[in-house]
Amino acid sequence: MNQSIGDIVGILADNLALRKSVMPLSAKQSTAWAKGLNIPHGGTCVLYTGHMYQLLPYISTMQKQTEMVRSTPLVHTFWIGRLINKFINTTWFMARADAKQKKIYNRRLRNIALLLRKANVDFGYLYGKELYAGALVSDLGGKDILEAHARRVYAMLKSEGVKSIITVDPHTTDMLKDMYATIIPDYDIEVKSYLEVLAEKDMIPCKKNEGELAIHDSCVYARYMNTIEQPRKLLANAGITVKEPAQTGKFTQCCGGPVEALYPEKARKFAKERLEQLKATGCKEAVAMCPICLQNLEHAAETEDITIRDISECLYEAYCDDPS
Amino acid sequence: MNKATTKLLTELRKDGDFNATACINCGTCTGLCPHGLDILPRELFRYVILGLEDKVEANIETIYSCLLCKMCEANCPGDVNITANIRTLRNYINRKHFKI
Ligand code: SF4
Ligand code: SF4
Questions:
Q1: Is the full-model pTM beyond 0.90?
Q2: pLDDT digits (tens, 9 = 90+) for B7-45
Q3: Suppose A95 and one of A62, A208, A217, A233 were both cysteines; which one would form an S-S bond, judging by CB atoms 3.0 to 4.6 Å apart?
Q4: Which residue in chain A has the smallest CA separation from B32?
């Protein structure tokens, strides 16, 4: 079992070193969400997706396939996969994502861009030049590979004249805001999540909203960077009642997503536990603000009487989706 | 009989500030960890401090199971950089055992 951990970590690390992402996407795949939005190319302030939302449908497919292999003797051949992957991108062949899922995740990114536009934030997008930030390899302990990658991303940002970044998920935010600063001396890019940016604006809801939602804080937003009040402020300002589960804010309980790549059965167990806490609020809907939490909790909720939503969807409906 | 040595700690400190010696063994991390694994992180870090490499090796699955959720770290009275230490430990295992 331990060797298969090494092979999976090895494949992801090799991909980051050789192909600039743990699971390389074509420019067409990573930028499809922005089609028709006419977001300017580049600029000093950019919306940086870090490819997390775009990758999730592919990761989901790959995890299902890996899980099937894991329960068979084929698990002992992962090392062959790693060897081949050095020459041919095997993860790409493994992961044929579900078209419906891709559409949903792309829509979430569009929501974020439209919310920022509604708040009169001036931003561009790097389109095909944007790179994955390296969170998964960092978490799995690929220090040298991550450091080389961070320098590559920073060089790209500097050559594009970027001074500030608006991120869309907690893991990319942590990488670009704090982790890169420990790797690169004089790192000088200002990084804020879109939730921070929107919370600083006086946003006016486009309609009267009501209803209640249970809130699931991401561990990374809540405990790594103290982003706790901002999502609550945005939801409450829109008229939505936010219900807190037993463990919340600084004490939020992890969804289990961070171990999904290596131990899917453990990830599922944590997600179920967290889902029980969210259900205990009595709400029929819960919001997550991280694509990893979202995916893990969505899977856990498939047979349950609660729907997990991305906070961007709720905010888009409240602030942008004018029914008139 | 295991013999304590600083070799492993010295090796790990080449990669980062492995500050496990600040641990006062209060057990807060164990009590709060959603995994409920008593080895993570204080016992594990003690193995590192004592240079008990075989004990570290025997717990590879536990080391990679940590969620890096910081529930322990945010409440640690010793200000131990628990998640950074776990990343450093993984980096060491990746190199030494998985040849990455
Ligand atoms: S909470 Fe901190 S000081 Fe207490 S046992 Fe855990 S690592 Fe050591
Ligand atoms: S960071 Fe790891 S050791 Fe600490 S509470 Fe979370 S899962 Fe447990």
A1: yes
A2: 899 999 988 788 888 899 899 999 999 887 767 788 999
A3: A62
A4: A251
- Ligand 2 within 6 A of CB of B76: no
Chain B nearest-CA distance from A320, in A, is 33
Q: Are B48 and B12 in contact (CB under 8 A)?
A: yes
State the Cα–Cα distance between residues A189 and A164, nearest whole angstrom: 5
Is A268 touching B (CB cutoff 8 A)?
Answer: no
Separation CA A321–CA A313 (nearest Å): 10
B58 touching A, CB under 8 A? Answer: no
Q: Does A224 sit within 8 Å of B67, measured CB to CB?
A: no
CA distance to A51, A243, A279, A280, per residue, from A276 (Å): 30, 14, 5, 6
Inter-chain CB proximity A6 and B71 less than 8 Å: no
Nearest to B94 among A3, A142, A262 (CB): A142
DSSP A11-50: HHHHHHHHHSSSS---HHHHHGGGTTS-PPB--SEEEE-T
Mean pLDDT by 10 residues, chain A (324 residues): 73 73 82 97 97 87 64 54 56 68 94 97 97 90 91 97 98 97 96 98 88 97 98 96 97 93 89 97 98 94 95 96 70
Burial of A49 (0-12, 13-18, 19+ CB in 10 A): buried
Model ipTM value: 0.92
Contact with chain A for residue B89, Cβ under 8 A: yes
| Proximal ligand: closest to the CA of B43 | 1
CATH numbers and ranges of domains, chain A: 2-198 (no CATH), 203-319 (3.40.50)
> Of B40, B11, B8, nearest to B23 (Cα)?
B40
